[in-house]
Amino acid sequence: MSRPTVALIHASQASLAPADAAFGDEFPEAKLWHLLDNRLVSDAEAAGGLTEELRARMSTLIQYAVDGGADAVQLSCSMYGPVAHDVAAHQPVTVLASDQAMFDHVVALRPGRITVLASLGQAAADSAQRLGDWLAAAGVASEIEPVLVRGAAAAASAGDLDELTRLMAAEAVTAARSAEVIVLAQYSLAPALAGIAAVVDVPVLSAPHLAAGSLASRLTERVS
Fold this sequence. Notes:
This protein is α/β, with parallel strands linked by helices and 224 residues long.
């Protein structure tokens, strides 16, 4: 059986290594094809959000991946998730938003209280808002607390996994006193997953790991 090709569409160079690591953990059989447009975020911010031109640009990247033979397409930028949802039904392969698999997993757990850990304040607020909307649409009532982990952004940017893990784990221990689930808001935090999970007794969820696991199941079912 040939190895399936998963195209990962990135808006930042920083998401490539965490995606590689997550797929290495959860779906090592996949051949990864990285597509990067590092202006997707800055252009959206300059435009005040997703314009029709930017939606079309992401749609073009998705179509390029499909036409190039990808067996599945995974976005790594949460901002462009709506585009993935819009085009998924019209593509012959699976197309997933960055945290779709993670949000689906949270819905299945139906937790009463969730802590969202992030290295940037905007990422914490954005992830908490979108997760809340996803849960509400599924009829799940949860209390969500976004938490900014100070120093984590600098550690992640410097590639200092030990420091990133230390900072994230300390916040996770505090969160686990009341939260039933801890969510990592960004792909850049995924390398610290194992170290965080080792110090708490509640599930710790990472978007790229769950995306990789979801695609492994989907693509395995397709060929079995």
